Amino acid sequence: MSALESLVESKLHSLSAPLALRLPSGRRLGPPDAPVTLAFQTMAGLRHLASGRLGRLGDDIVRGQVRVEGSMRDLMQVVAALVPAGGQAQLPSPWQRFKNRLNSVLNHSRDRDAQQIRAHYDVSNDFYALWLDPLRVYSCAYFAEPQMDLAAAQVAKLDLICRKLDLRPGERFVDIGAGWGGLLLHAARHYGVDATGITLSQNQYDHVNGLIAAEGLGDRVRIQICDYRDLRPERPFDKLASVGMVEHVGRANMPTYCEILCRLVRPGGMVLNHGITAAGLDDAMVGGGLGDFIEDHIFPGGELIHVSHAIRTLSQAGLEMVDTENLRPHYARTLWAWSDALESQLPEAEAVLARAMPADRAGEVLRAYRLYLSGCALAFQQGWVALHQILLIHPDPTQQDGDLPGTQSGYPFRRDHFYR
Q1: Do residues 303 and 247 touch, judged by C-beta distance below 8 A?
Q2: Predicted confidence (pLDDT) per residue in 296-313, tens digit
Q3: For range 9-36, the mean pLDDT
Q4: Rg of the Cα trace of the chain?
Q5: What is the count of structural domains for the chain?
Q6: Is 93's pLDDT higher than 80?
Q7: How far apart are alpha carbons 188 and 196 in whole angstroms?
Q8: Domain with 21 in it
Q9: Which residue is catalytic, options 162, 258, 262, 376?
Q10: What is the mean pLDDT of the chain?
């Protein structure tokens, strides 16, 4: 047995979750009854496992150089045992921080952002439809009742956002990063708003336009292909939601993003920012190179910041935070629902992707998404990342609403309307 094999075998014995390996020679390591086996075609993948470079091991799986035999849920138990305690990577050095900031600036030009968004969201509408809910809501659901299924929980999330914003008939509402139109159309149907959505994805734009036409809502619902930095309404909106958008902004662009949110909403209006946040105060990525894996294969240009940094930057832009809610466990359950739905129809998923891209590329994309959905479910479950809804007002000192002095907006400074 080589030194590498001995090292790996000792590591397997120390794991709290059973894992078996099949080496290129056919030799097996680990418990014979382990629920998950990694089959290696080359020894490079074994070295990545031995050194704890889980992101590189994920690369090997995507490229087909390591095959997973077993369920994603069992595999993630192994990953949890392998990731460093607390799930956070080592904090970057000052030089690395400078490089990260420079990359944040370079990665978030208008053209670069458009390319990165389309690389993810324009994979295939039919592929996403396989594992999302019927409304194709691609963000954290809200399981208001324990027995809710995913579809009901997504509707509950859409309604929670509308209630937090206290949407009223006739108000001008904008959805920044409207996705496949779930929130946009829910707000129009059930709250009577005049709704505008923006996206950078051609696939999403085409899908939402089809829904608007089918429902005859063209007089008060519209979708645009538009960068948030280029949105110039004739007058400010009453209410704004940004759901799953802030992760794509980049730390360097956060001040600009927050200033634009403030500009887009009239004084006295309201903003809800819903997004994934870093668990660590220093915005460290998930350990073991898993953050790099997401960057390389799923969300190019994605950056996470801590909720405290988000609130500080939003406040500096002129918005006042009036409520913040952490929905992290809800996102873990959402992601497991997505993962389980995809796992239940893998042959169909590969066939759908093969109609949209070369067959070898389809296999890589499918393997990447299998790891991404289950890995993110684990990350939210373990507390390695979080999800926050931040509700804000654009203060108007001349506005007084309700019985409390100094509301400076329509927000009642009570939560009753959230849960009615």
Answers
A1: yes
A2: 776 666 788 999 999 999
A3: 92
A4: 23
A5: 2
A6: no
A7: 10
A8: 3-82
A9: 376
A10: 89
